[in-house]
Amino acid sequence: MCGIVGYVGTRPALPFLLAGLHRLEYRGYDSAGIAVVTGGALEVYKEVGNLSRLQEMLAGVDLRGTTGIGHTRWATHGEPTTINAHPHTDCSGTIAVVHNGIIENCEQLRRELLARGHRFRSDTDTEVLCHLIEEYSDGDLFAAVAAAATKVIGAYGICVVSARHPDLLVAARNGSPLIVGVGNGENFVGSDVPAIAPHTQRVIYLDDGEVVAITPEGVQGVVGKADLSARVHAVGWEPGEIDRGDFPHFMLKEIHEQPQALARTISGRLVESEGDSHLGGLNMTPKELLDVQRVIIISCGTSWHAGLIGEYMLEETARVPVEVEYASEFRYRNPVVGRGDLVIAISQSGETADTIAAVREAQRRGARVLGIVNVVGSTIARLTDGGVYLRSGPEIGVASTKAFTGTLAVLFMIALHFGRQRHTSNAEGRIMVRALQALPDQMRQILAREAEIAELAARFVNGRNALYLGRGYSFPVALEGALKLKEISYIHAEGYPAAEMKHGPIALIDKDMPVVVVAPQDSVYDKVVSNIEEIRTRRGQVIAVATEGDTEIASKANHVIYIPQTLEILTPLLSVVPLQLLAYHVAVHRGCPVDQPKNLAKSVTVE
Ligand code: F6R
User: Does 175 have pLDDT greater than 70?
Assistant: First the structure.
């Protein structure tokens, strides 16, 4: 949440800042702003609303300064107004700060600073940082930021400029992601790789508690770490990957990228002859795998839905008990967890604050923690004792799509490997491997039916509610389908286990209620068909996601979207795709801003 960019070099900073903010808009769009050091003064421009309003404000403004910072905001403290937009400045207007995170002791600091004569303009927690830095400034900006950081409780990723230091950015991190991009004669700061990816592939991931001084020549004055050059990593993303290309929205692009992304996720990790997967990053011996008494999966949102499917996969193949927890609940409810437990943290971004806190809690209590993460070098990737990267490529769309199917593939490969140590035979394993390898092509077949799904979506346009039902592996898919619809089209939708419908939600069903039923031909198919009958009897409108060749369902549902046949355990990787497309097209028909859904931002870095 909140995007940060910084530039120090020899070129004008402004174009870099605006382009970087454009690529970071998925992190917040309540307001945007920039500060550039120009001729010994600080020029600050900020505007409420999304970035285009700031761009309009800056059209024709000629800022030549070669050092600057920028911010796109997802509001926490203080309403989304121009006054509360970042960058914030100190009393003298010479120091500017952009911040991602929450300063928990801001009220106390504000009172102390007011008593010392500082004048506040905004309602934000961030502004205390400006005045604190001002308080400690005696000609050394780096030392002042480091001193201010010791007074602050909470999470922050900050980037600071001063009119008195025209070639200097100071960045500090504690709990909120921040990276330094290493260029030639110029350097960059970003809250996230897309901010800097077109300019350099070399990044340094800052650690918690670190404060760094960045000049055009290098990254210096590191507190707490001796040698920064040893920490330069290659990003591994191509600049083209963070563009929308010919797609109208990132979400649609990412839905369509799923076949290639999935192929990358599984590439080199399956050994068909062994009927097994090889996941070196797990860092676990066969004996350690056998010793696992219980698996606990922790995650949030869409990643939590993937975790539910992981539970079914692991219990089925490895017969190991699995619990799935919302990271935010796990963190605060004194969980019983320790040695013998294997905790798996799932996070596309690797920066979700609740999941990070849950990982720390599990480690503190002695559990081994694995990460399933997409963003290389992210906090969870670095914190965990082992793990598997998704390799899904950058996911920019706020609504997660390709990371969901990538996570399911990784969970399946982990389940397969666990299973092979315990119960699954070589022959069964080989069948599973082949089925997984067939999925990218099967996904392409579903994507080819987009026009049909878009037409169906038109019927939802004026709807106010929708119900999503599924049983077994299809129940978490129903939850995910409902989440996709509500987050981007603002239609209230609920996911339910199909059999639970009779225990309450059936009261809602009438001719105006669309009911999406995920009903592949699996072990619970007959039961789900009975549930469809119950809905039809009450004149509900049934949209079924069914297996190709299923003629029975066509006579019972109002509309059927077909998916290819696969193993039951792998069905979610296919059945979710039409639901992603359905949600997308409903949102487009309703004129919703698909990539910038209201009140949401990608990567929830506050608790
Ligand atoms: C929904 C969505 C969110 C995320 C959740 C966790 O489409 O994207 O629910 O899944 O915020 O994010 P990560 O996986 O980055 O921890």
Answer: yes
